[in-house]
Every structure is written in C-alpha cells, then in structure tokens.
Write a structure and sequence with these properties.
Length: about 350
C-alpha cells in the first residue's frame, strides 16, 4: 500500500496551483487508467488532485464555426452529442469503437489524451521498461511485441498509443487547450503526443504544471465521406492492432482534400501528410488509395511478432479510404450487421 494525499481542485487556477506545488502529484479525472496504474504499482503519486468538479464539461461553438469540448466531457456524452454525431461522425465512431459503455461513461476527453500505453511490460513491474523506469531497457524489442509499433519507434521503446479518440482528433486537426503557471496555450494535435526517441517516459509535450482544459475542433468534420476502421482481436472491448481514421472531400470523382491517421501503429496517433498530399487531386479510386498506403508504410518496420501489422495496415488504409469515398463508413456497416 502506497500512501497518498487526496485533494479537490476548486477551479482551474487552484488545480494549477496544487499541481505546481507538488512534483509527485497527479490529476485524477475518470480514473479508468490512472487507478489501474496505481493498483499495479506502475505509478506512485504522492497526491491525487481530483478535478472532476471543475466546470470543464461543456461542448460549445467556437467563433470560427468549430466546437470546443471541455476536458471533463465524458466519452459517452461526447460520442452521442447531436453536434458531434452530425458534424463530426468520425470522432463519434472512433470513441464508440473504444473500451466499453461503462468505461466510456467514466472516461473523460482530457484523460483519453493522456492514457498510457498498453504494453504488457509497462504494467509488469518485474520486467525492464524504459517508459516506467528510464534506463532499465525495453523488454518488448526482443519479447512479446504483437501489439507494438511499426512506425516511429526507437531502440528504447516500441510501445503504441492506445487511444481511438485521438486517432480521429489527429485526422480532424484538433487543438489541445492547456492552462499552466504561465497562462493558457493552444497546442496543435500533431505536437501534443511525442515519439519515444531516447525519452520514452515522456508521452506528451504537456508541461508537468499544466492541465488540459479543452479540445477544439476546426469547422470541417469531413462528415460526408469518412470512416473509422478498427482492426482488433475481438469485436469489442479490445485495443486496436491497427486503426484508420479517414476523411475525404470529393468533387466529381476527384479528391479535393484528404485526411489520414492511424492508431495502434506508433507511439502517437500517426497522421501522414505526405499520403494526404498525394491523395489530394487524385481520383477517388482503389489505385490512389493503395499508393497512399504504400507511402504511409514506406518506413514501417516490424519486430518479429508484429510483422503482420504492416500488411494489415496497408489493407486497412485501402479499406477505410474505400469506405469513406463510397459514403459507407465502418460504423454504418457495423449498424447494418447488428
Ligand atoms: C479495460 C479497458 C479497455 C479500454 N479500451 C480502450 C479502447 O479500446 N480504446 C481507447 O481509446 N481507450 C480504451 N481504454 C482507455 C480509456 O479510454 C481511458 O482509460 C480513458 O479515456 C482515460 O480517461 P479518464 O478520465 O478515466 O483518465 P484518468 O484515468 O483519470 O487519467 C488518465 C491520465 O490523464 C491525466 N489527466 C486526466 N485529465 C486531465 C486533464 N484535464 N489535464 C491534465 N491531466 C489529466 C491523469 O493525471 C492521468 O495521468 C480502455 C480502458 C480500460 C480500463
Ligand atoms: S515498448 Fe516501451 S513501454 Fe514497452 S517495455 Fe519497451 S520501453 Fe517499456
């Protein structure tokens, strides 16, 4: 049993004050990841700062025609919000592909961004893991790495980011709003999560004294031609082996704009702008989608048990883009099957 203190933040300024005052403190929101990590002994905070009573649970219009999602909006409320359903169905599909209804009721938008990897060794405190204990080594490189990264990994860590929601947010070009001792700032989604490099214990570019207050979506939700395709070992309640968020704008059979991001393949949601640029102006055909997949996977590398993911990702990209182009997103197909 590790003793820790518990306190409640009364407002955002108080939350920042409290986290800045204690380097060993951490925020708790829905607790669906953090409490597991504490129970497993992976993390040992000196203080839990409960932020669940902060007024960060609204979904509001922004001046530029987008939406601002408060950091404490539960994943379920977000997925079923009428504006999300209508204008950002890609995001709704991604959220509903994750976890279980009970977990989604508790999990928050901010917590989803900061959930930690599902690498088995990270949770097993008897094994070396650079993310849990910097400098101890990586058990996954030569170990069981079926779920691990094929893109952007380093010799120090080959873990993947487990979120579904974040893959859609990457494709939609969301921004993360944070408040800290130096005031508020807005972080482009692509700059929020980090690749492992030689500091795999640092997952994001959020500062230790900062709290996520909201996530902002730009106006374009690619609501007509989109798909979130999640390939996993079971049809529900399983993390992605590979997932693909695709959004297209198509005019007269030609792609005007494309968005493409992958989950389950890297230490962060993997958006590929080269493939997006290649798709822009190209006909919305299988050949164009296959070329984009080749671009995304040009530098992919497997670690033995996960070699199969490279071909799986190639096929998933082509399938998701085909579904998006034809206006039959995976979520609609799931509904028909049910
Ligand atoms: C069995 C299981 C299956 C799951 N399956 C999936 C899945 O398939 N797909 C998927 O995407 N997710 C899945 N999840 C993960 C789930 O989505 C996350 O646990 C959840 O989103 C975390 O949100 P939370 O509010 O509970 O965060 P917490 O557990 O409360 O916190 C997580 C981290 O975020 C920090 N934090 C929380 N809010 C803030 C904030 N506003 N500002 C700064 N720091 C903050 C906390 O300090 C902590 O470090 C699964 C979880 C479980 C337990
Ligand atoms: S892949 Fe990363 S999280 Fe997993 S054992 Fe290696 S260092 Fe740890």
């Amino acid at each position: 049993m590790n003793n820790f203190e518990f306190s409640r933040a009364t407002d955002v300024a108080d939350a920042v004050r409290q986290i800045a005052a204690d380097p060993g403190a951490t925020f708790v929101a829905g607790g669906t990841n953090l409490i597991d990590l504490i129970k497993e002994g992976v993390t040992k905070p000196s203080r839990l700062i409960d932020i669940t009573r902060l007024q960060l649970n609204r979904i509001e219009d922004t001046n530029d025609g987008g939406l601002r999602i408060g950091a404490l909006v539960p994943n379920s409320d977000l997925a079923y919000h009428p504006e999300i359903d209508k204008r950002y169905p890609l995001l709704a599909s991604a959220i509903l592909a994750g976890a279980s209804p009970q977990l989604r009721n508790m999990a928050t938008a901010g917590g989803n961004l900061l959930q930690r990897t599902r690498c088995f060794y990270f949770y097993d405190t008897t094994t070396p893991c650079n993310k849990r204990e910097p400098g101890s080594g990586c058990s996954a490189v030569d170990g069981l790495n079926r779920m691990h990264a094929i893109l952007g990994a380093s010799e120090h860590c080959i873990a993947t980011h487990p979120s579904d929601m974040c893959v859609a947010l990457a494709a939609l070009e969301a921004r993360v709003l944070a408040a800290g001792r130096n005031g508020e700032r807005s972080i482009a989604f692509a700059d929020f999560h980090r690749l492992p490099g030689d500091t795999p214990h640092v997952d994001t570019n959020l500062n230790k004294d900062e709290i996520i207050t909201a996530v902002e979506l730009p106006p374009n939700g690619f609501a007509k031609n989109y798909s979130y395709l999640k390939i996993r070992d079971r049809l529900s309640y399983a993390f992605a082996l590979v997932s693909v968020a695709a959004g297209l704008e198509i005019e007269n059979g030609l792609i005007r704009q494309a968005r493409l991001a992958l989950g389950g393949v890297a230490h962060k949601p993997w958006r590929d702008r080269r493939a997006e640029a290649q798709l822009s102006g190209a006909p919305a055909t299988r050949e164009s989608f296959a070329r984009a997949a080749t671009t995304v996977l040009r530098e992919a590398r497997g670690f033995d048990h996960n070699d199969f993911k490279i071909e799986l990702a190639r096929r998933a990209i082509v399938r998701a883009l085909t579904q998006a182009a034809s206006g039959t997103p995976q979520s609609q197909i799931d509904k028909r099957v049910r």
